[in-house]
Design a protein that fits this description.
This protein is of the alpha/beta class and 412 residues long. The chain has 17 helices and ten strands. The strands form two sheets. It has an eight-stranded parallel sheet. Strands 5-7 form a two-stranded antiparallel sheet. The structure holds beta-L-rhamnopyranose (RM4) and manganese (II) ion (MN) (2 copies).
Length: 412
């Protein structure tokens, strides 16, 4: 018997004694799907430079191969999200990608239009003061819907680089009106079974104003657009000190939370591996989601959330960085499933602040590694996906066979 197996037996007994249903918890862990970002398996980096990785994926086909390998070791990532301008096919057709992905056990997830890689976008895309650029953006959106359809995907995720750098540069309320018109054109172009995720970010590349700068702005746009528009929360897109789990709880309560771009941050939009810098925050976010999943008023929204990674692996190996990020996400989720919600409700009703906090922290402080290992083994996976990946020889294989440079996010 391996050490973790003994630890699992002890933990499972302890959790059962607390009245938790361990089998149900494992099943919930196994069901949490994380979409893999195609743009993170290619070379990615910062605006200062990109450290190229041996064997980095060069095409969407190779990105599918890498994501299939990640899925092989994890079992909870059968979906690859795409960023259209980094994932172009030679002939502009995408059904073949869908078929190739399906052969590898994957489907294509959220499709991200790209309205920032082009000289024309200097003053923005949909908010641009020039009508011809706005029209060009809308044409791109409509083409993205076609691509989404060909991929067999049901969601489009929009993040806009629109903003201004100087007071007076543009008329802010006019930009808001242009923003709505642009998003409405995209929303109206969607097939009836497609969802639009609207992402916000507080700054960058605009350093004075950003047209969708916080959840309130995304939320009000989504409200006006309609029921198939939902807010996407990128964990790195908030100012320091902002309480992200509180935002998540409000969006859940409004049934307007659509998805996440999960990553880690210390300062700004750092795109570090999920759960590496502030694992407590990630846990508290999942705590809100698990809580909402138990409430009939919010369960449908909570259970339909799309989880994606949005990261940039600048110094760590991309594939290992992604695997570790999914594992850290699972850790936060598993801990949130351990919160004794009945005891917590009682402590809150009694106004017992210390006890209420202790109950939440007891879950956070539980070592869930044996539980996750068991959940993985029951899915036919290795208890430690990083070890499985290292033992596979996949990295050596791609390093030897892929010559030339692979490009991903910011990898140009
Ligand atoms: C943004 C945002 C988007 C991502 C781009 C590349 O900061 O996170 O989701 O697609 O970067
Ligand atoms: Mn993002
Ligand atoms: Mn970002």
């Amino acid at each position: 018997m391996e050490t973790w197996e003994k630890q699992y037996d002890v933990l499972a007994d302890a959790l059962s004694e607390c009245g938790l249903d361990v089998e149900r918890i494992k099943a919930t862990i196994q069901r949490l799907v994380v979409e893999l970002p195609s743009w993170a398996v290619g070379n990615s980096g910062t605006r200062y430079g990109v450290f190229r990785q041996p064997g980095a994926a060069r095409t969407i086909w190779e990105k599918v191969d890498d994501c299939a390998e990640i899925q092989r070791v994890l079992g909870v990532c059968p979906v690859m999200a795409s960023h259209v301008n980094w994932d172009k096919t030679d002939d502009g057709r995408y059904e073949p990608v869908r078929a190739y992905a399906a052969e590898k056990g994957l489907r294509i997830g959220t499709v991200h239009p790209n309205t920032f890689l082009g000289q024309e976008y200097k003053f923005g895309s949909v908010c641009n003061p020039f009508a011809e650029v706005r029209q060009q953006t809308i044409d791109h959106f409509i083409d993205c819907v076609r691509i989404t359809r060909e991929f067999g995907s049901k969601s489009v995720g929009i993040w806009l680089a629109d903003g201004t750098n100087y007071p007076g540069q543009d008329h802010l309320r006019s930009r808001k009106h242009r923003l709505y018109e642009g998003l409405k054109a995209l929303y109206d172009a969607l097939d009836p079974d497609m969802t639009l995720f609207v992402e916000y970010k507080f700054f960058e590349p605009g350093f004075y104003t950003t047209d969708l700068q916080d959840w309130g702005m995304s939320f009000s746009m989504c409200q006006r657009l309609g029921p198939r528009a939902k807010v996407l929360v990128d964990l790195g897109h908030h100012a320091s000190g902002v309480n992200v789990e509180h935002i998540v709880s409000i969006l859940l309560d409004e049934n307007k939370l659509g998805g996440f771009h999960i990553n880690g941050r210390k300062y700004g939009d750092d795109d570090l591996m999920a759960g590496t810098i502030n694992p407590l925050e990630l846990f508290l976010i999942f705590d809100q989601i698990v809580d909402a999943s138990l409430d009939t008023a919010t369960a449908t929204t909570a259970n339909a959330i799309t989880y994606m990674l949005d990261q940039s692996h600048n110094i760590e190996g991309s594939i290992e960085g992604i695997i570790q990020s999914v594992m850290n996400t699972q850790t936060a989720h598993a801990k949130a499933l351990l919160v004794d919600r009945a005891a917590l409700a009682a402590a809150q009703e009694a106004g017992d602040v210390i006890l209420a906090n202790r109950i939440v922290m007891a879950a956070y402080e539980t070592d869930v590694r044996p539980l996750l290992a068991q959940a993985r083994v029951e899915m036919g996976r290795h208890p430690d996906p990083i070890v499985a990946f290292r033992e596979s020889g996949y990295l050596q294989h791609i390093a030897a066979t892929r010559t030339g440079e692979g490009l991903g996010a910011l990898g140009g």
